[in-house]
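Review form for a predicted model. The reviewer records the input and the model, then writes brief findings.
Reviewer: anonymous (R2)
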Amino acid sequence: MRNKKQVRSKEQTCESNHIQPEVSESMLADYTPKDRILSILIGAEGKPVSRKSLSREVEIGDRSLREYIAELRDEGYIIGQGTDGGYTYGNQADLWRAINKEKARVRTLSKRIKKMEKAIIMQNQYVMEVK
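Model under review:
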């Protein structure tokens, strides 16, 4: 049986790597990089995780990491930009930012749709006048 110091040092090492102690490398191999990124961010419990650390732990390049983060955001996961270029998962400030961003997107689309409808109406009026 290991002493408390050995157990504590193993847990501290796992915490610094943002991986839960009971998760083995063979278990992680069954997951996609995107799943592993999400798992690491959730495991960090709102603390920022650096891009460099995420890239190293998931064993992918920085560009791939940014692409996976974008995909997760597109799927509805709230992933915020922490300070120093890191990422955080799902805090309220990030959620409100995401909501406001989506509202702005809806307003922009609504304006475009109104312009398109107006163009169709004007085109129909022109066709009626020509006849």
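Findings: The first strand starts at residue 79 and ends at 81.
Further findings: The chain has a mean pLDDT of 78.
Recommendation: see findings above.
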